[in-house]
Amino acid sequence: MDGMSDKSDESQPKPQDAAAARERQRLIGRRLQSFFDDTIQEGVPDEFSKLLDQLDEAEQKRAGEDSETEVADPARESGTSGGSR
To answer: Is residue 23 within 8 Å of 30, Cβ to Cβ?
Structure first.
Protein backbone atom coordinates (compact mmCIF):
# COMPACT_ATOMS: atom_id res chain seq x y z
CA MET A 1 0.00 0.00 0.00
CA ASP A 2 2.99 2.30 0.32
CA GLY A 3 3.11 2.43 -3.48
CA MET A 4 -0.38 3.94 -3.55
CA SER A 5 0.51 6.71 -1.15
CA ASP A 6 3.56 7.56 -3.26
CA LYS A 7 1.34 8.02 -6.32
CA SER A 8 -1.07 10.32 -4.49
CA ASP A 9 1.90 12.38 -3.23
CA GLU A 10 3.11 12.82 -6.82
CA SER A 11 -0.28 14.17 -7.93
CA GLN A 12 -0.20 16.93 -5.31
CA PRO A 13 1.77 20.03 -6.34
CA LYS A 14 4.73 20.88 -4.20
CA PRO A 15 4.25 24.01 -2.07
CA GLN A 16 7.00 25.90 -3.89
CA ASP A 17 5.43 24.97 -7.26
CA ALA A 18 2.04 26.26 -6.12
CA ALA A 19 3.59 29.48 -4.81
CA ALA A 20 5.48 29.98 -8.07
CA ALA A 21 2.30 29.39 -10.07
CA ARG A 22 0.38 31.95 -7.98
CA GLU A 23 3.15 34.49 -8.48
CA ARG A 24 3.12 33.87 -12.25
CA GLN A 25 -0.67 34.35 -12.26
CA ARG A 26 -0.34 37.62 -10.33
CA LEU A 27 2.32 38.86 -12.75
CA ILE A 28 0.18 37.95 -15.76
CA GLY A 29 -2.81 39.68 -14.16
CA ARG A 30 -0.84 42.87 -13.52
CA ARG A 31 0.51 42.92 -17.08
CA LEU A 32 -2.93 42.34 -18.58
CA GLN A 33 -4.41 45.05 -16.40
CA SER A 34 -1.74 47.57 -17.40
CA PHE A 35 -2.12 46.59 -21.06
CA PHE A 36 -5.91 47.02 -21.12
CA ASP A 37 -6.23 49.87 -18.62
CA ASP A 38 -6.09 52.53 -21.35
CA THR A 39 -8.68 50.68 -23.40
CA ILE A 40 -11.06 50.50 -20.45
CA GLN A 41 -10.73 54.24 -19.85
CA GLU A 42 -11.64 55.05 -23.48
CA GLY A 43 -15.30 54.22 -23.07
CA VAL A 44 -17.73 53.16 -25.78
CA PRO A 45 -17.74 55.18 -29.04
CA ASP A 46 -21.02 56.98 -29.77
CA GLU A 47 -21.67 55.03 -32.98
CA PHE A 48 -21.20 51.73 -31.20
CA SER A 49 -23.44 52.87 -28.37
CA LYS A 50 -26.17 53.76 -30.88
CA LEU A 51 -25.87 50.32 -32.49
CA LEU A 52 -26.22 48.66 -29.08
CA ASP A 53 -29.32 50.74 -28.36
CA GLN A 54 -30.84 49.72 -31.71
CA LEU A 55 -30.11 46.07 -30.94
CA ASP A 56 -31.76 46.37 -27.53
CA GLU A 57 -34.85 47.96 -29.10
CA ALA A 58 -35.07 45.25 -31.77
CA GLU A 59 -34.74 42.50 -29.15
CA GLN A 60 -37.44 44.08 -26.97
CA LYS A 61 -39.75 44.43 -29.96
CA ARG A 62 -39.12 40.81 -30.98
CA ALA A 63 -39.74 39.60 -27.43
CA GLY A 64 -43.06 41.49 -27.39
CA GLU A 65 -44.09 40.01 -30.73
CA ASP A 66 -43.15 36.50 -29.59
CA SER A 67 -45.29 36.76 -26.48
CA GLU A 68 -48.24 38.04 -28.53
CA THR A 69 -47.80 35.22 -31.06
CA GLU A 70 -47.80 32.55 -28.36
CA VAL A 71 -51.12 33.77 -26.98
CA ALA A 72 -52.76 34.22 -30.41
CA ASP A 73 -51.63 30.87 -31.89
CA PRO A 74 -54.50 28.36 -31.47
CA ALA A 75 -52.38 25.47 -32.79
CA ARG A 76 -50.00 25.87 -29.88
CA GLU A 77 -52.86 26.00 -27.39
CA SER A 78 -54.47 22.79 -28.71
CA GLY A 79 -51.14 21.01 -29.03
CA THR A 80 -51.59 20.35 -32.75
CA SER A 81 -49.40 21.48 -35.56
CA GLY A 82 -50.60 22.78 -38.88
CA GLY A 83 -48.72 20.08 -40.80
CA SER A 84 -50.39 16.97 -39.35
CA ARG A 85 -53.92 15.77 -40.03
So the answer is: no
